[in-house]
Amino acid sequence: MNKQTYEKLAYMTIKEKILSGTYRIGDHISESALAAELTISRTPVRRALEVLEADGLIRFERNRGAVVTTSVLTPAQFVQMLEMVEVLCLQTVDKIKKHYASFEPSENIRLTTELKAAGEKGDYSAYNSGLGAWLHQLLTFADNPYVLETLRKIVQDFQVKAKNDLKMLPLLLADRTVTAFHELIEELQAHRYEEAKNSIQKLINEFIILTFR
């Protein structure tokens, strides 16, 4: 295996140990022990830990090295993410209402078509990526880089910290989401802003209800 393959192996191994609960919050991750377990040098383990630090799963502490800072994303935390996405989307609608001539839906229409195709294939990874891209495109109309940065962090946390069963959840609402996105685009084009905000709130509520079923 080449160097990048060793780094990926170390990354996936450590991440799985964190998400499965083998490594718990506050646990120290021994570079030497993990390198011995995987029969690789410490260098790719160190590189993997640096990526995991950027992901927010570990931090480096003086005299302790790598320490687990968080683990699997809980349903309650996922709902908090949904609530923040709702706030960002509603703020964006208000911004579009204020400067309605700036809304150009062609990219969101294209992304909706791609999202529908990913949903029909049942590929939750591609679907979730498409969902993130759709939301990012909508939030560009807020014309606020901090809005986009907040969304980026939410998407990253979901991709990194959610277990597969939680990652599957958006796919269960794929048809409903695509329909809601078509409706939302039409409402924004027609300047029916309160209806657009209601559509956003209804869709988020459906996600929240499904999360706790």
UniProtKB/TrEMBL annotation:
Alphabetized GO MF terms: DNA binding; DNA-binding transcription factor activity
Going by the UniProt record, its keywords in alphabetical order are: DNA-binding, Transcription, Transcription regulation
Record keyword tRNA processing present: no
Report if keyword Hydrolase is assigned: no
What is the top-level taxon of the source organism?
Answer: Bacteria
Q: Where is the HTH gntR-type domain?
A: 4-71
Question: Which regions span the lipid bilayer?
Answer: none
InterPro entries for this protein = Tscrpt_reg_HTH_GntR (IPR000524), WH-like_DNA-bd_sf (IPR036388), WH_DNA-bd_sf (IPR036390)
What is the protein's given name?
A: Transcriptional regulator, GntR family
